[in-house]
Amino acid sequence: MNESTDDTYDDKFELKPGPKDPSVLHLQAEHRSSIIWNVGGGDVLRSRVRNPSSNRFPSLHHRMVPLLRDVGFDGVARLTGIYIDWSLVTALVERWRPETHTFHLPVGECTITLQDVSVILGLRVDGQAVTGSTDFKEGWSKLLENMFGEAPEEKYLDGGRLKMSWLDKILPELSDNANEDELIRYTQSYMLRLIGGILFTDHQGSEVHCMFLPLIQSFERSRTLAWGAGVLAYLYRELCKACKVGLWAWTRLPTLAPVPRGPYSDNKEIWGDLPGPFGLSCHNVSVNRFSLDVLGPDHFIWLPYADVLDDLSEICQEGNAVWCYKGPIICFYIVEPHEPDRCVRQFGMVQDIPSSATVYSRCLHKMTLKGKTETNWRDKHKEHILCWDNRLQFVNVINNVGAGVTTRYTEWYANVTRPYHTRVAAAQSYAVIVISIMCFSLSCML
């Protein structure tokens, strides 16, 4: 029998990880969790990002803030030194399922939604798709010269990728007496650093693709774009760059989060380099795997923003009309499904069995920029962009307000999920069942 279809334990009490029914998690054979169950171990994930509070970023000048706020980038610009618990991130990524674009936890499916991006990063999620062409007729070097006053040397520009060290070199810090043109240039360069260093990071965290240049060339255009939806599409595709999963995890998994310092303010770190709930600055990946394996209903917060939404800035709430949108989200070459109907408890609804997960072609899901230097992605993905343009027609209606799940969902989910990633947790579950049976048998004998 294929392991991906095994029960948690068979008639001989041999531990089996699931799922029982492989119709949903049909890619189990190639999933990371199979290796963890069979072999154990696995490296802790790492990612490279530029932190706005580090010395690799120029300081945020107070004159830039209104311009960044206008385009919806001031929230990201104010991100401070965030401690990343890479072991927690790793354990979560191991529970991400590409078949459904959700995390499969013992308590049910959950995911990172447009609401999360809007609230945590303060990015607009209701606007035009983040897309365009990966080619500029006059050349990227010419466009860079038009925007920043000089063209980069050849060593700083590799095809369509710009080394951000060039921006550090020509535009290090904005002076207090800078004129309006200089202010615009510095603000645009700061936006480009945020795009390449935080929002759409590459594997090095040191380059940014020039395809984003036309999108920030005009503040008027930048403010119309759904940057948050683009970031979420990119995150779905590149979930291994899990620094963006960390804050989401802390808002929903309090038992695995560091203790927050207090309420949010513009000049204060919420999390920073904080100790965990047990005074530990770093968790062990094996401990986090086990913790997720035995996660109980009271250990996951489905509505972490309920008490703070009214106090958040306007931009964190202005896209609430599309938070429950079901359909494609787009970032140039990337098209990914946003499926909040699989996680309606995150929106205050009772979870029932969701509709079948959207399945895009394998070719579309694996599409990259490699060899596509002259592609107009607006034309290439026009069908999906049209759907996004009509997004209000694809918003799930909230008509089952409440908490919890239906009985049939519980039965269905138990069959289609993989409840355990570690043998220790599976053995513990088995032991509890055996002890319960023994206690029941003894009570019947008395």
Automatic annotation (TrEMBL):
Disordered, as annotated region: 1-21
Pfam families registered for this protein in UniProt: PMD
InterPro entries: AminoTfrase-like_pln_mobile, MAIN-like
Compositionally biased region (Basic and acidic residues): 10-19
Top-rank taxon, per record: Eukaryota
Domain Aminotransferase-like plant mobile intervals: 75-413
Biological process annotations from GO: meristem maintenance
Name of protein: Aminotransferase-like plant mobile domain-containing protein
Species per Swiss-Prot/TrEMBL record: Daucus carota subsp. sativus (Carrot)
